[in-house]
Amino acid sequence: MSTRALTWTRPNGLTPAARRRFWRQTAIAYLYLSPAILLLTVFHFFPAIYAFYISLFRWDIVQGRFLGLENYQRLLVDEAFWNSLGVTVWYVLLAIPAEMVLGLLIAYLLFQPIRGRIAYRTAYFVPYITSTVAAAIVWRWIYNPNNGLLNSILAWAGLPTSQWLNESSGVFALLLAGAGVTLPPGLGWLAGPSVALVAVALMSVWHYTGFHIVIFLAGLGGIPKELYEAARIDGANEWQVFRRITLPLLSPTSFFLVTVSTIGALQAFSQIYVMTNGGPQDTTRTVLMLVFKTFYQQTRLGYGSAIAFVLTGMILALTLVNFRFVGRRVHYD
Fold first, then answer.
1. What is the pTM of this model?
2. For the domain 73-329, what is the CATH code?
3. What DSSP string runs through 173-213?
């Protein structure tokens, strides 16, 4: 009996002995998989199904009446949800491009044969392995408007200080105000992300850039050196080598980082909770922070579960779009 016959999903056409062997091997395979299947069922599948069940009811402390999709319909007119969605989009736009660009540039520099690069690589990776909560507490002190490090440095240099994490004004509005321009009341959305959200995003960039550096270094190490040597022999300068060889061959690495980092940014919670708790004036309250507020603080379990499922759907849809369109530009050879 050939090995190929034993890999069929249906043992039709096999001899009785081969069929028994097939089912015995299948049973053994599922026996080895059973611990993982059990853990996934108990801690992932069942909670997800039960959360969807909760989202169909008016559920405060105890289960109330059946609402069907009413909780989901309420999201369409919930100003708090749309505001948190805008904050989430701004957070992703502030953090992900900065992490990608800084991670690539620093990794490219650390890939060169410079003295002490092992120490530099370690130093850049340390923030990532630091506890997010501990790092957020330190950065909250740095941004402290009274005795924080940042305002102390600005005051020493004779520059204006700021409230930072307590500042709800949009950065674009502040820049326009500095130029003597005031946004009309109907164009408040042009004010941009709040200063507090930008401050939190900077902390996230500091924290996660080390991860991007390590992944980019792994990608750079997989590019054949012969390609660089051949390009330089042909007269290509460093920028041409970087643009024509490094960037295209790093596209799988970049695609992976964009996908993973975007999913992570959409689920950002710890640093926002520690640094601002969603304030000031909800200008840092992302969708996940809104889920926490609705579910745990307001005990609206049904509505909070509905928001969580909508966020999950958004993450899934964005990931599929990323694979559908961005994935086409990935070069694997």
1. 0.87
2. 1.10.3720.10
3. HHHHHHTT----GGGGGGG-SBHHHHHHHHHHHHHHHHHHH
